[in-house]
Amino acid sequence: MEPQRPRQRAGLGLASKGGCSQRPRIRNPVEWLDRQTFSFHFRNLSFANGRNSSYLCYQVERLKHCSPDSSDWGVFQNRVYPETPCHAELCFLSWFCAKKLSPYEQYDITWFLSWSPCLSCAEQVAAFLKENRNVRLSIFAARLYYFWKPECQHGLRLLHHQRAWVRIMSIREFKYCWKNFVYNQGMPFKPWKKLRKNYQLLAAKLQEILGNTMNLLKKKVFQQQFGNQRQVPLPRYRRKTYLCYQLKQLDGFTLDKGCFRNKKQRHAEIRFIDKITSLNLDPNQSYKIICYVTWSPCPTCARELVDFINGQDHLSLQIFASRLYFHWVKLFQRGLQQLQAAQVSVAVMTRSEFEDCWEEFVDNQGMPFESWDKLEQYSESISRRLQKILLPSNWNNLEDSFRDLRLGSPSPSSLRSDSR
Fold first, then answer.
1. Are strands 67-77 and 55-64 parallel, antiparallel or unpaired?
2. Has 61 been annotated as catalytic?
3. Positive or negative, the Cα torsion across 367, 372, 374, 379?
4. HEC string of 218-256?
5. Is 371 strand, coil or helix?
6. How far is C-alpha 412 from the geometric centre of its chain's CA atoms?
7. Fewer CB within 10 A of the end CB, N or C, for the chain?
8. Beta-carbon count within 10 A of 350 CB
9. d(CA 300, CA 303)
10. How far apart are CA 331 and CA 109, in angstroms?
11. How many CA atoms lie within 13 A of 201 on its CB side?
12. Smallest Cα–Cα separation from 94: which of 68, 115, 69, 125?
């Protein structure tokens, strides 16, 4: 979701926090960029000659009880004066720390950068994030700074490991900056040539640098596999199982996310369980996991998910399914009932979940989610079907259900040709 810029500047009211006083005092930021400066310095060219200056557009939100309380915004440029050189990122940190960070409040910071941080800036920003766990930073960069150099790649990985959300600016972020940080005189943002193509190249390079386990879904794959139509639209294709997950802290910060599809003899749900188990999450902290699946779990996967979640009080699991898998077969119904009995939330994807899945897991190139025909109608119909299955009056004895689940499930191929 895009952050909303306040109509008026509001002081953050920060209190003292150690670790910031070592940086020099920096002048206040400016409020606007002129059109020519933005169009020249934020252009995401493959070879950006003559762009030696770095610009940082920022927005800071102070949160109280997980709701925005006040905001601040502005623009910093790197200082090139020989006596006091300072990159834009460090200018921001000095200004921010001068406002005296409170350890008792949460701060959400969003940066839009013309260049990604150099190693020195990345190290200092990462150290700041490590010391101030109540600060969350999202970074959107127009271009990658010396991305072929190992030291600059290392800096980006440092930020990523300290919970910074590092991404490449898409057309959506460029439009947002133009609207909120540029003195545009009412003129609309005009995309330049190859903006989307350059975004794709930079996003792929950043993903390679960060070593993300998740490959974004192609738009066609998402539309085909997550579509909730009763029948497969023409031309016909096989619907398979995809599972997209987000691992979050209770304050909403995303720790990890990824996407799995079925492999031979290993369903996406099992691969997901293996991934979460490998993270060795702290049992003294609480986490929320949100899963979007094209098909609801089969009985075997339902049993595995129940075994996985049982005894892990620090995990909360929500499953949103686009479609129900063999919902008319009692054994498959019992699998869904057992998930609910294990305190796993099972629901049907609505437009809201489809939009979130599109934003988080699809190579959408900054384009908004477009609904297909009768999405809401299909979602409501599938949801009514699921609610009927989950009604307590439809449950058999729980012990019998568990016993049946452990006997295994019929081969999907034996029931229909459209396998998971």
1. antiparallel
2. no
3. negative
4. CHHHHHHHCCCCCCCCCCCCCCCCEEEEEEEECCCCEEE
5. coil
6. 32
7. N
8. 16
9. 5
10. 48
11. 12
12. 125
Q: What angle do CA 225, 391, 318 make, to 5 degrees?
A: 45
Are 262 and 241 in contact by the 8 Å Cβ rule? The answer is: yes
Question: How far is residue 354's CA from residue 76's CA, in Å, rounded to a whole number?
Answer: 36
**pTM here?**
0.58
Report the pLDDT value the prediction gives residue 365, as an integer from 0 to 100. 75
Number of alpha carbons in the 13 Å side-chain half-sphere of residue 79? 17
pLDDT digits over 134-191, tens only? 898 999 999 999 999 989 999 998 898 888 889 999 999 999 999 999 999 999 999 9
Q: Which residue has the tokens 């979640």?
A: 309
The H-or-E segment that residue 332 falls in is: helix 330-341
- Counting DSSP H helices and E strands in the chain, the numbers are 14, 12
Catalytic residue among 61, 89, 269, 353: 89
Length of the chain: 420
Beta bridge partners of 80: none
Using CA atoms of 318, 324, 325, 329 in order, give the dihedral in degrees to the nearest 10: 110
